[in-house]
Every structure is written in C-alpha cells, then in structure tokens.
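Lab notebook: predicted structure, single chain.

Context: the supervisor wants predicted structures on file for every construct in the current expression panel, including those that have not yet been purified. This is the next one on the list. No modifications to the sequence; it matches the entry in the shared construct table.
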Amino acid sequence: MRARYGVPLSIAAAGAAGVAYAAGFEVRSFRLRRVTVPILPRGMRDLRVLQVSDIHMVRGQRKKSRWLQSLAGLRPDFVVNTGDNLSDPEAVPEVLDALGPLMEFPGVYVFGSNDYYGPKLRNPARYLFEKAQGKHGLNGNAPAVQALHNPWQPMRDAFDAAGWTNLSNTRGRLKLDRYELAFTGLDDPHIKRDRYEQVAGGPEADADVSIGVVHAPYLRVLDSFTADGYPLVLAGHTHGGQLVVPFYGALVTNCDLDTDRVKGLSTHRSAGHTSYLHVSAGCGTNRYTPVRFACPPEATLLTLTARAA
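Prediction complete. Output recorded below exactly as produced.
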C-alpha cells in the first residue's frame, strides 16, 4: 500500500518510529564512556578525569540534571568542562544546580559558542552543505548578526568561585597530592575566539603532566597543541555527529575534523609529534534539534595511566 503522495506507508512508519526513538528515548539515554590514556610519567599514580561537555541545558530538563549530579559518585580526581553548557538564556541556575556536586571537585573549563550566544533555528541540512563547502561556524561563514547573547558571566563567576580554573586563552594549574598538573586552554575556535599565540610554548617543564583543553577540535588548534608536544587534548563540540547512520558512522562533525574521529579517543599527528585526542559526544543538543540517533548522550571518565616507557 502507498501513501497519497507515493511514499510507501512502511517507509513513512519507519521514519516516524525513528524520529520518535531519537527524540523520545535516545536523547535522554545518558551513558558514561570509560577510556584509558597512557600519558603519565612512570611511577605516578593513575588519575581519574571526568569530562563533561555540550550540556546545552534547557529549563525543565530534570532527568539530565539528576544524571549530571549523579556523576559526582564517581569521585573523580578532577573535572574538565569543555563548554556549551547552555541552550536557553534562562537556564544558568539549572546548569549550576546540575553541576553543583561536581564543583566540589577540582576542575578546569573552557566555554563554547553556545555559552556566549543563544541557538538559532536552522535547517539541519545546512550542516551537510557547509561541510561540502568547507564552512563551519564563523570559519568561512559570514559573521553572525542579531545574535542572542547568553548571560554567561554569572556562570563563569560561579565556576571561578567554586575553584574551577578558567582556561580561555590562558594556562592554569591544579595540584593533586604531590603532583602538579598543567593545562593550556583556548576560547572557542568555532567563533574564532582562539588565540594560540598567547599560550604557545608547549608543556611546562616543572609539571608532571600537561593537557590541552578546547571546545571545538579544529585542525589548526590540534596541529598547534600537537606540534608543541602536548600528550593529550580534550575537546567536545561535535555531539558525536548527533545523527549517526548505523554501520556507516557520522555524517558531520560541525568543524574540519574528519568523521572517523568525531567522538572518543584517537590520535593526532603534527610536526613529527603525536598526541592523544579525546572528543566528547556531549550530553545535550541544540534546543531546536532535540534528537540523537545511534549516538547516545554521554560523559567520559578518563583514567590517565603511566606511559609504557
């Protein structure tokens, strides 16, 4: 049997079921990814790092809030927040409530474009067109006009008051037990706020380990971190592709990173150096496209271990 306009009813039903699953179940099916990264000096104890990213909080998302609060039970050594906490200018109190238990732990953070600017309704197919044209965010597109500004300053102030270190185009340190951890962070490359020249120079010689942190994993940023010798770079932004084709993979990354590295742990090479790269698929979506398919929302517990040699 066929529908009125020639679309088989079975295909229409399958499509409707897929949308219902993506919007009604998977987008709230929160997961914890566990990854081991061998980057520490020999003899140093393992470190447990919780990375949260792309929360895109909207008022009333109580299940997401409760899940984020529950992550404190993992007792990480420190937390890394790789940005895009907001998708609603009135959701700052809910972000802070959701992250409150995690802010009891040492932490560092960078912001993403959706911390600064509110989302806009746009055709999701534009991501495919922009990929084909090599355009992503403000990297190749015209500057945004009439953008909605989010109240990011109170969120920044709360993170700072909790002792989290702001890494926007700067360096920071955490001291855990007798260990010194150094971080180098950038503001969001997706909207051209990154200033690597301000933090260039590579890992700090007197730190036990140095880590690069950025929201969007643009190749220019990964090349710079890797060429400077950072053993690990943490990023988010991609949503893991958000809508993934089973047995094929993600269609887009919303930046110039290849789709093979759209989420999870991989490596990056530049100037004769190799770094580990971890890209979080994040735990939220733009409020205007609240669906995920074959790409559940996530946070990641990374266990940093000693290098083999």
